[in-house]
UniProtKB/TrEMBL annotation:
<protein>
    <submittedName>
        <fullName>VOC family protein</fullName>
    </submittedName>
</protein>
<dbReference type="InterPro" id="IPR029068">
    <property type="entry name" value="Glyas_Bleomycin-R_OHBP_Dase"/>
</dbReference>
<dbReference type="Pfam" id="PF00903">
    <property type="entry name" value="Glyoxalase"/>
</dbReference>
<dbReference type="InterPro" id="IPR037523">
    <property type="entry name" value="VOC_core"/>
</dbReference>
<feature type="domain" description="VOC">
    <location>
        <begin position="18"/>
        <end position="154"/>
    </location>
</feature>
<dbReference type="InterPro" id="IPR004360">
    <property type="entry name" value="Glyas_Fos-R_dOase_dom"/>
</dbReference>
Length: 154
């Protein structure tokens, strides 16, 4: 389609309507569930029994009433699919040359209470990799498996 062609908004079809999940490689799914619950508030989906030896699990953020979301076409916050990975199976991160080649987060969460979250992280011994203030305060951190995440308060 050429740039000067007009397309009516009501006629335009959506190809992508959100992100439903992020696949996260972990060494121990059961222990990772507990870590993500304690530190980020994720909860296991009702489809799995949470028990040692699990190979995979789906985690979601509950709403204000503690209810897990129903699957749908529009997902505001993606689910985490924890998968037991092979030894040396890789982690969610990459190095960014603009940041001196340091490992960089693969995804960024949003919070309205970053100071409270930062205190929780410190109390729980979360591996905090950095803090910065750009367009809002950010915290970069790693889960026990070395997956790097960021959280931002707009």
């Amino acid at each position: 389609m050429r740039q000067n062609e007009e397309m009516k908004v009501e006629e335009r079809l959506e190809d992508i309507t959100g992100i439903t999940c992020i696949y996260v490689p972990v060494n121990d799914v059961y222990e990772s569930i507990k870590w993500y619950q304690k530190n980020l508030g994720y909860q296991p989906a009702n489809i799995d029994r949470v028990e040692p030896g699990m190979m995979t699990a789906v985690l979601n953020f509950p709403d204000r009433n503690g209810k897990l979301p129903s699957p749908g076409l529009r997902q505001v916050v993606p689910a985490l699919f924890l998968h037991k990975s092979e030894e040396g199976g890789g982690r969610l991160r990459f190095s960014w040359s603009l940041d001196s080649g340091k490992p960089h987060a693969m995804a960024c969460f949003i919070t309205p209470r970053i100071e409270e979250l930062f205190e929780r992280f410190k109390e729980n011994g979360v591996n905090i990799l950095g803090e910065r203030v750009t367009s809002g305060p950010n915290i970069t951190f790693a889960d026990p498996d070395g997956n790097i995440w960021e959280v931002w308060q707009p």
